Structures are given as C-alpha cells and as structure tokens.
C-alpha cells in the first residue's frame, strides 16, 4: 500500500468524503462535517417543542455515545416532576476546541471538554463563569492484533510510541510484504481535539514531530470524529489513540479487529487520564445571563450533583462496562 498523502494545512472543502473500507483510500482533503444545528432532546415529552430549546451544551464523544442524551432526558424529567413545563435540551457536536469556541461565542450555555489548559484560559478570558471536574475518562492506545511495532505489555506509553515511530520509519525505508504483515502506521485525527492534543504531547515528549515538514509517511492524518477514525484504523490495521468510552461504544465488528495495548488509569499523574470538565457560561463580564439562565444553571448543578446527574454518569455503560469514574476531590 502506498504511503498516505498528508492533509494540507489549508482545507478548502468543508464537506467530508465518506471513508471506504473497501479500498482503504483516505481522501487528501478529508474534513469533519461542518457544525450545522444540533440534536434535540425532550425527555420523552412530545409537546416540549412548544416551549422549545432552553438549554444548550457542546461536547464530542460523550454526546456521540449517548451520555449527553441520558443527562438531558433525565434532567428534563426531573424538572417536570418539580413542576416545570416540558422543554428541550440541544446538544452541539464538537471536539474540545470547537466546543470551547461555541461556549465563548455564546452559541451554547455550557461545554463538556477535556483540555484543562485551554479551559483555564477561557475562564481567565471571562467567557465562562464556572468550571467543575465532571468525571474521569481514560485514553487507550489501540491497534491491530498483528502488532507490527512489537509493543509489549510492560512497555510504558512513551516506549510504545517510540516503537511505533521506529517501526514506522523502518517500514517506510523497507516496506514489508503485505501478505506477511501490514506496514506500521499511526492514525491521527489531526483535528485539535483533546485526543489529538494528547497524542501530540506524547510525541513531543519523546522528541518527535511526525506532522512537521518533512512529515513522517507512517503518520496518517484522518480528520474525523472518534468512531469514524476508529473504523478507519481498524480497516487499515493502524495504531491510534482514542478515549476509552469511544472504544467501548464501537461496534463489536470494529473492536474485533483491534486490541488495547495501553489504557489510562484514574491516577492524576497518568499521562492517559482524560479529565472531563464542565464549563458554564452564565453571567460573566462578557456574557450577561439570558432568559434561560435559571434552567441552564440548574442543569449545570444537576450534572455534578452526586444524588442526581452523577448517578446517570457513573451508571452509564457500554459493552457491559461502566465508562466513567468519579472526579477526585478538587478545588476547581
């Protein structure tokens, strides 16, 4: 298989070309679908449309796999039981960078994101008034069963990435017989998501910059959301980094072709910890509270209430496994 072309820094097309597992081709200008509208949840009350959307939240993976919907429906039912008229909650799909931008612009009331440094910058800018540690997720390094980079269980994540780099470079210089094994490649979403930022931090920590000029031919840039990227990595026998929730929610036929080589823990110093924080716009110097402020505030507080939303979060499961754990005692 010929090396993949790099995706140019400037992408003129905003329309994503579907990935075809039949030929393994990945378009040169592949891009995420543009943000257009949102998914609307009503808690099972069909007449909630009469009142319309009253709360807006942005997020990526947790929304894709159903946690945001579980939150929204449970919260609406909770509020109706307290006497509130039925209403709708809107979820806007966006990775952490896009979700923070939606929050800063006032498009959404809150954002669930996974990049603490960027979140703190947004708080400092005055575009958000509150931030809380919502739950702990983890990243996982996954790849093909044939394991062309010869990763071993006792390897650290840094050693694993180093092996992928070395094996990838060697396979570029001397391509393996495809009938024996696939070449070593790493799939990056290359999209400014929390996952992309995390993998970049790991590559930088081992002194590598595979996306820089002259870029590494084993570094496959595929700009899609997690579940689409995982399907591509599975079809092409590539390693990739993914949040564990997205891995567990992937179709069995996708996971069957891959295995987990390293997964994060809940330890604060684990490089593969994926901390989820909820940021609330609310009333700030840059964002006066809107007419739905009371409901938005109630939703924000309900999500992190141990007797309410946290029960939904901790009980959320895929493939028979719970996906998230409690946040640690925290001052933020």
TrEMBL record:
InterPro entries tied to this protein: ABC-Tungstate_binding, PBP_domain
Domain of life where this protein originates: Eukaryota
All copies of domain PBP, residue ranges: 55-304
Pfam families, per the entry: PBP_like_2 (PF12849)
Protein name: PBP domain-containing protein
Organism: Hypholoma sublateritium (strain FD-334 SS-4)
